[in-house]
Amino acid sequence: MKFPAHGIGLRVFAARSTRLVCAAVFLALSFLPSGCGQNQNHAIAPAGAPIVRVLLLDNRPRVDLTATASPTLRVGAGQARRLDLPRGTAIPIFYTDAGWKVGDSVLGPGELTIEPEVDGSVAVNARAFRGRYRFVPRGGGKFDVINDVDVDAYLKSVVSKELFWNWHDEAYRAQAIVARTYALYVSRTASEGTNFDLFSDTRSQVYGGISAETAKSRSAVDATRGMVVAYGPPGQEKIFKAYFSSCCGGVTQSAAAAFGDPPSVPLSEQNIGPRCSESPRFNWAPLVMTKREVTRRMRLWGAMNNQPEKGIGDVARIDIRTNNRFGRPTSFLVTDARGYRYSVPCEDFRHALNTDATDGVTLPSSFFQPVTEPTSIRFTNGHGFGHGAGLCQWCAQHQATAGDSHEQIVLGAFPHSTLVQVF
Ligand SMILES: [Zn+2]
Predict the structure, then answer these.
(1) How far, in Å, is the centroid of ligand 1 from the Cα of 216?
(2) What is the Å distance from ligand 1's center to 217 Cα?
(3) Ligand 1: distance of its center to the CA of 75 in Å?
(4) Ligand 1 center to residue 231 CA distance, Å?
(5) How far is the CA of 392 from the centre of ligand 1 (A)?
(6) Concatenated DSSP letters for 148-181?
């Protein structure tokens, strides 16, 4: 399929039709050069995959560098220089008043960039990543380590960390598309002045580095290279924050209810039914927490997040306040012994109740019915694992084994969405 007027055609797969678009998928955020309808000979997609910036290590006083080939270093806007390092030996890096100290070499102050000679030939704290490293001073001799890596290279160790090793190729491909979209959306909407886009853990997506890649994850990323999920009128599709979670429990949550995001069609709730019932947490057994423990966790969460719950009295009862149209709770009403009532959005409630869970009792999801007992709260009729918004991984695996393609899986997870190839 070609779109000769633009030089590079964008392949679009849509439930409603298959066609080509001049993609505005990146929110006019400078990822794609402008040119749609203006310069018909302008290439509208970059040749390579865009770079994302991943925070690997946070506020460290020291890290160890191991290289199997001599990397190139640059401090601030200074000259790049090759640094000869003993091969395979861990070299400590510190940030001192005089600047960077890499083994015996003292370099100047400022941001330090390390460009491996060969992709993956430099490891930080014994873990090798593709792309380059930036070391950013934080003050007090501490620094962050950030990995600038092309999004598809990044995904090769995200997809493998997010799914079971023996899951279906089509589930892996669906996950690659969704994780790519999520990463690019977060990257393109990052606040100005931030040094990184993504955490390397569940706060964004779990990223393990080269040793975490598998043949299956590499193949899934390569097979879907450059493909994202988007939404909008024909020709004006935009990417969105393509969430995913482990198990929806039969009803997905909208991103608006789960995260307070603006309402959006592709991230609205859906009534799925028992498709992901193979998940061990499709139904979960009742959990009991004493009111005293519920109170302690809510106060602690409130204090950590500066929410009114920090001052809640002894919790007396918990009720569902609102459900979505398919009966999944979207907010809870917590009443304390003084009669004060707190309306808590569903995912805030789950995070609050899972704060400092020293006894190991945690809520797998916010999809349950609370029952108030004299001294405790019983969480009954529990379904699902995770926030439940967007792609359900267990649903994806079920669909893949039933013969659905990765395109069908992704388009089904995000209502009225379209697949677009952007690089
Ligand atoms: Zn599901």
Answers:
(1) 22
(2) 21
(3) 48
(4) 21
(5) 5
(6) EEEHHHHHTTTHHHHS-TTS-HHHHHHHHHHHHH
How far is the centre of ligand 1, averaged over its atoms, from the C-alpha of 360 (Å)?
Answer: 25
Beta pairing partners, 320: 332
Distance 6 CA to ligand 1 centre (A): 39
pLDDT value at residue 2: 28
- pLDDT of 47: 60
Distance between Cα 269 and ligand 1 center (Å)? 12
Question: What is the per-residue pLDDT across 308-347, written as a single tens digit (0 to 9) for each?
Answer: 999 999 999 999 999 999 999 999 999 999 999 999 999 9
Per-domain boundaries in the chain: 1-50+151-242+390-423, 62-140, 283-383
Digit-coded pLDDT (tens) for 114-136: 999 999 999 999 999 999 999 99
- Report in angstroms the alpha-carbon separations of 268 from 45, 157, 254, 275: 29, 28, 4, 18
Burial of 203 by CB count in 10 Å (0-12 exposed, 13-18 middle, 19+ buried)?
exposed
Quote the ligand 1 centre to 389 CA distance (angstroms): 10
Instruction: With beta carbons less than 8 A apart as the criterion, state whether 348 and 331 touch.
Output: no
Q: How far apart are CA 201 and CA 213, in angstroms?
A: 15
Other beta carbons less than 10 A from residue 289's beta carbon: 23
Tens-digit pLDDT profile for residues 177-222: 999 999 999 999 998 889 999 999 988 999 999 999 999 999 999 9
How far, in Å, are 65, 74, 145, 372, 420 from residue 232 at the CA level?
Answer: 45, 42, 37, 44, 12
- pTM score of the predicted model: 0.88
Angstrom CA distances, 185 to 158, 190, 192, 223, 391, stand at 16, 8, 14, 21, 16
Measured in Å, residue 397 CA sits from the centre of ligand 1 at 9
The encoded tokens of residue 272 equal 């799925």
Tens digits of residue pLDDT in 277-317: 999 999 999 999 999 999 999 999 999 999 999 999 999 99
Give the distance (Å) from ligand 1 centre to CA of residue 230. 21
